[in-house]
Amino acid sequence: MGQNLAEHRKPTVRRPPVWAWWALAVALAVLAAALITVLSLSEPGDTEPTTPGTSLIAPDDTTPLAAVWNVPPAFLGEWTGTAAGHDIVLTINPGKNSEEIARTLESDARSGLRCEWVDRVITITADKLTFSGRLVGGAACGDDGRRMAITLRPDGSAEYTAPTPAGEAVTGTLRKN
Length: 177
Fold this sequence. Notes:
- This protein is 14% helix and 37% strand.
- It is mainly beta.
- It folds into two domains: 15-43; 73-176, Lipocalin (Beta Barrel), CATH 2.40.128.
- Strands 1-2-3-4-5-6-7-8 form an eight-stranded antiparallel β-barrel.
- Strand 7 and strand 8 (169-176) form a beta hairpin.
- The longest helix has 24 residues, at 18-41.
């Protein structure tokens, strides 16, 4: 019995303080957010394949995320006209870049074609708007994300430019109602 009691005690394991666990959780959350950001930036964009020299539509939106531009008042309202024999009705509402502010209806009474898009404005200048369309009605109308542009002319009309499902550029003249 002459053994020292201190020799038989198990060493105590010290646990990290609570603040250390919180610091680890925050560090992991920051790391996860950084990883998600890097992965989302490295994915290819939704560019449309084009034949060199045939694209009349602006490419991807290059607007900085912090930039905000209002649609000029001259564009607002309902525009009607024709392009490639189809009747076009384009309604543009007030809004800013990256917002769905327009609706395009394309119809052809002879063929029965009727296509409808909700359009998000992606570039804005004093005389030109470029949109990316989301198909909301119709068949054989092409894919979501089609690029469409409207350019103001000095006489008050506007040039309408949009791709066909085959990738060709269609232009027409629209007048404000």
